[in-house]
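Risk register update: the risk of archive-format incompatibility is retired. Evidence:
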Amino acid sequence: MEPATTVAVQRVRVEDGRSGLGARVVRLLAADAAVHVVDSGDARSGDVEVLVWLAAHDADARAARGQSALTGLPEALAATQAAHVVLVTSAMVYGAWANNPVPLTETAALRPDVEFAYARQLGAVEQVVDEWRLAGQGRTATVLRPAVAMAADGSSRLAAALAAGMGQRMGAEDSPAQFLHLDDLAGAVALAVR
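Archived output:
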C-alpha cells in the first residue's frame, strides 16, 4: 500500500467573481482540488496566497458606478497577504500608435492614448500592482493584457459594438479588429493562478 499524499490547497480570492469573466474563472478554479476560492466578502479574504484582480477589466460595471479602474485596488493590495497577484487589464495600455512595433510584445512601452481615460486608468492599475510587487520580497505579479474579450453571455458594450460592425475596417490600411473568447481568457487567468 502506497502512503497517502497530501495536496497543498492554494487559497485564491477572485475580485469581481460575478462578472462574465469572473464567473468563468471561479468555475475553472473551483474544479481544481488544489484550489480553494475565497469569497471576497469573507472576513478572511485577505488571507490568501493569490489575489486575482478582474475588477479593472469590467469597464461597463465601473462606468455604471462612476468608478475609476483603480477603485478598490490599493486597499485590496494593502489588506492581502497574497504573494502573487494576477491582474487582467487590456492591450489598450499600449495605445493604437502607428509606430508600435509589430509584433507588439510585452517588452513594448505602455503608451495608452491620452484621450482614452479608461486606457490611462488601466495603465495606472498596472503601475500600482508593479509598485506593490516591488515593495515586498517574494511578491510576484502576472499581468494579462488581452484584446477585447467576448462571449454570447458576457460581452461588454465595447465588445458588442465592435462585433456589430463598429470595428470594421474602413480602408485597406486599417488594422483588423481582434477578439478573444471569454472562455479562453478565463483559462489563461486560471493557468496564471497555478
